[in-house]
From TrEMBL:
This is Uncharacterized protein. Gene3D superfamilies: Ribonuclease Inhibitor, Tetratricopeptide repeat domain. It comes from Lichtheimia ornata. One of its GO terms (biological process) is SCF-dependent proteasomal ubiquitin-dependent protein catabolic process. InterPro entries: LRR_dom_sf (IPR032675), TPR-like_helical_dom_sf (IPR011990).
């Protein structure tokens, strides 16, 4: 919607009542206002063109934008902006501005001429890539333009990078070109994929029932990774047949099974014996036919190539016998995930069967927490030959009655020297005994501590907090601090934690948090609590005590905060947390625009993340007023916002703008 304030201000005024002296004054004043605005527009145009010749592009754009605000009904502002972009070599952006101007004045000959010139330059191609060394193209140029190490193209969104040059295409033969088949009703693979099949290294199929046959990808033997969803009893046999064609190159396989499928992991590994990574979701052990029936001995089914095995969302939980068979058959495992698993007795023996195991996840839930699981797997080194070196451990007992804590304790103590990341969510009906004072976790840096302590269960593993001198990141349920006095004492004694995440089971914040004890070291704080807690005095007071706080994240995507409570929170942050460098707000509130205005007063704010669906056009454009903001992330943007986001990017060329979903 155009802002016609200045245009209307200079329009002739029709007087409803005449006056002998006032009529001429109104007419003459209006004429002078028109002359002033015309003169101002002319001066801005002259200065913008002069700045353009001096290569002062940002300032020239500012003057062109001012002309548009003075009179958006004229094409002059769009013409100037287009010329500035064209001088920068941004021909597509220039054409976009010229088109806007033609919508206002389609008879403007200069605009049509500029469009033709920009299109000519935009269509001109110089194959400089072929003249560069392949190493430069592979390691510098392509990752810089794509933004990540991998290129993904979809059915409806072809990857144009493949057509830049032959040298560019050669790069993909050495890299990780991914192809994703969306959940579409089109049963055939697109022609482009078939033509470039020998470049594809990774394939993702959202609905295998619609896209069953990918055997044509086996020609060149480059396909290394497949992620497929929708395997059922109707098509699982055909899926195994397709795997035969790509098994020589395939190293990574992730399968999402539907409830009707009884596809066995051993059937998959029989077809693809050289797999290094297998993830099976929704699989089931057949009660009538134990998994060892077809492969009675270890020697008959030894798969030393497999380094990662993830069994998630199993219909039948893993037992002690199942776990031992898996360990026997896959001695080279570096990472093992079993969900759900209802037996912990095999834990002390894992390195007897799998001496290279580095990451272990067991949970009585069908799925483990994705945010913790993904973070924990970062420390895995699949090429490491070091034995008895567990680096990350994830143990989660839903009701606190499935796992024997002595098995868990033994595993932790046996690997205390090497553990770097742990997630503990285990309860015990007896008080957890204090370990020997000499026990230390010298390498433990990240701890997710989600105890199940309540009136019946006790917190297991509280002592880890006081035996981890290198701990830097802690994710904890704060209401457990009141349940376990030993945990509270260990929490207060920590002086090295820099990143803290606070969660809650109960939903209140009556529990006292030792903010003052954390004020000297906590720099990053993530508060994942219900909206009612965000206005609690104990939280607001605590935030003000964290004198070294630089990064703050608040709320969850499904939270809605009252406008008054949000403004109170925003005012408190601006007043008591002046040194914030990064702020991330995921909850929804109707008063977010006022918060945007308040947050602009932060002197050091460089990174900001907010919900776009709570902001108007004016609210989004206001980010251009931020002086030191370098990176802005907007959640839940919509296609209708793209013009506004482009305008924001034009006004703030040094601002990195990202879009994300919640």
């Amino acid at each position: 919607m155009q802002d016609l304030f200045w245009v209307n201000l200079s329009q002739p005024i029709t007087l409803t009542a005449t006056h002998q002296q006032c009529g001429p004054i109104v007419t003459e004043s209006t004429t002078r206002i028109q002359e002033c605005l015309t003169r101002l527009t002319t001066l801005l145009e002259e200065r913008s063109l002069a700045l353009l010749k001096c290569a002062q592009f940002d300032t020239a754009l500012r003057d062109a934008e001012a002309i548009l605000k003075l009179d958006p009904t004229r094409a002059l502002g769009y013409l100037l902006k287009g010329r500035i972009y064209a001088s920068q070599g941004r021909q597509r952006r220039a054409i976009w501005q010229y088109d806007k101007g033609l919508n206002v004045d389609d008879g403007n000959r200069e605009l049509w001429q500029r469009v033709a010139e920009a299109e000519t330059w935009n269509n001109k191609r110089v194959d400089f890539v072929s003249r560069l060394p392949l190493e430069i193209v592979s390691t510098n140029l392509v990752p810089l333009l794509m933004g990540d190490d991998d290129a993904t193209w979809h059915v409806k969104r072809p990857c144009h990078y493949l057509h830049v040059s032959k040298t560019w295409r050669r790069r993909f033969m050495l890299g990780n070109l991914q192809y994703r088949v969306d959940d579409t009703k089109e049963p055939h693979y697109p022609r482009q994929l078939m033509q470039l099949s020998h470049h594809v290294h990774s394939l993702q199929i959202d609905n295998y029932g619609m896209h069953p046959d990918f055997a044509f990808l086996s020609n060149e033997g480059h396909l290394r990774k497949i992620s497929v969803n929708g395997i059922s009893s109707v098509n699982d046999t055909q899926f195994l047949a397709c795997l035969i064609g790509v098994r020589d190159s395939l190293k990574y396989l992730k399968i999402e099974l539907r409830a009707s499928s009884w596809l066995n992991m051993y059937d998959v590994l029989q077809v693809c014996p050289d797999l290094e990574h297998l993830t099976l979701c929704g699989a089931s052990w057949d009660k009538d036919e134990p998994i060892s029936a077809s492969y009675p001995s270890q020697q008959q089914f030894l798969r030393p190539a497999l380094t990662t095995l993830e069994l998630r969302n199993l219909q039948i939980p893993i037992t002690h016998g199942h776990a031992l068979l898996l360990l026997e058959h896959f001695p080279s495992l570096r990472s093992l995930v079993l969900c759900p698993c209802h037996d912990s007795s095999f834990l002390p023996m894992v390195h007897s069967y799998c001496p290279f195991l580095q990451h272990l996840e067991i949970s009585t839930f069908q799925y483990t927490s994705t945010f913790a699981s993904h973070d924990m797997r970062r420390c895995i080194d699949v090429k490491s030959e070091q034995q008895d070196c567990l680096r990350s451990l994830y143990v989660q007992d839903e009701d606190g009655d499935q796992f024997d804590i002595e098995h868990v304790r033994t595993l932790m103590i046996n690997n205390c020297e090497t553990l770097e990341t742990m997630m503990l969510s285990v309860g015990t009906q007896q008080d957890d005994s204090i370990p020997p004072p000499a026990l230390q976790f010298p390498r433990l840096k990240r701890l997710y501590y989600h105890p199940l302590g309540d009136a019946i269960l006790r917190c297991f593993g509280w002592w880890v907090l006081s035996h981890a001198p290198a701990l830097e990141s802690l994710d904890i349920y704060y209401d457990a601090l009141e349940t376990c006095s030993l945990l509270l004492g260990a929490f207060r004694g920590m002086q090295q934690v820099k990143s803290l995440t606070l969660r809650t089971h109960a939903g209140g914040m009556e529990h006292w948090i030792p903010w003052r004890d954390m004020s000297a070291h906590v720099q990053q704080l993530n508060v994942v609590v219900p909206p009612v807690i965000l206005k609690a005095p104990v939280l607001l007071h605590g935030l003000g005590q964290l004198k070294h706080l630089t990064d703050l994240s608040l709320g969850k995507r499904n939270h809605v905060v009252d406008a008054g409570d949000f403004l109170n929170l925003a005012t408190h942050l601006v007043t008591n947390c002046p040194d914030l460098h990064a702020l991330d707000i995921k909850f929804s509130t109707s008063a977010l625009y006022k918060g945007v205005i308040l947050f602009s007063t932060f002197e050091h704010l460089e990174r900001l993340s907010l919900r776009a669906d709570n902001l108007s056009i004016t609210g989004i454009l206001y980010f251009g007023e931020y002086q030191k903001l370098k990176h802005l992330t907007l959640y839940n943007t919509s296609p209708s916002m793209e013009d506004t986001l482009n305008d924001l990017q034009d006004c703030s060329p040094n601002l990195t703008l990202s879009r994300a979903s919640l």
